[in-house]
Amino acid sequence: MVKREVLYFEDYGAQNTDQTLDAARKAAGSLGLKHAVVATASGLTGVKAAKVFKGSGVKVIVVTEYAGMAKFEEENRKKLESLGADVVTSTHSFLSPAESLSKLHTGYCSENTIIKAVLRRFSQGMKVAAEIVMMASDAGAIPVDEDVVSIAGTGNGADTAVIVKSCHSDDFFHKEKGLEFKEIIAMPRKKKFW
Known about the structure:
Layout: E1 7-9, H1 17-31, E2 35-39, H2 44-53, E3 59-64, H3 74-82, E4 86-89, H4 97-106, H5 111-122, H6 124-138, E5 147-152, E6 160-165, E7 180-188
Parallel strand pairs: 1-7, 2-3, 2-5, 3-4
Antiparallel strand pairs: 5-6, 6-7
Helix pairs in contact: 1-2, 2-3, 5-6
């Protein structure tokens, strides 16, 4: 049996970042995890995470939004490199341009749309936490079939952290190789769905 404190924030948002990162580092350390995957748009949350995990033996992989959407700041990339973190920029696992356009113009609801909606019922960060692990796996930045800590948020910062078994995007539904949520470390009680 594992006994661990779970943080449930009353509200979502960047004000929860420091507590989320600290809790994620403690959980990763107690489980002997080797990788932390962190969502970031500008790179700021990634830099904060790299500083928190520095010296812990946990490799930080920062996952940005895809290139056409990214607002990643080059200054933060330099800071991340100096802190030993890797940066992955990739297409979102639960979004493809074709799906996005068909949904917009026809009201089509794909499996990805349903998956995203269900995960957002936990929190926006839960959807992103699953997605960035697959994006990092697809890019070869982390091994598959390994427990990692995944850190994400709602809008800015980090308010969600989970332990997830990694997989490639195309194995999401696979009964043995698929993505598995192992533990919730932190998440907000209040939700923002869109």
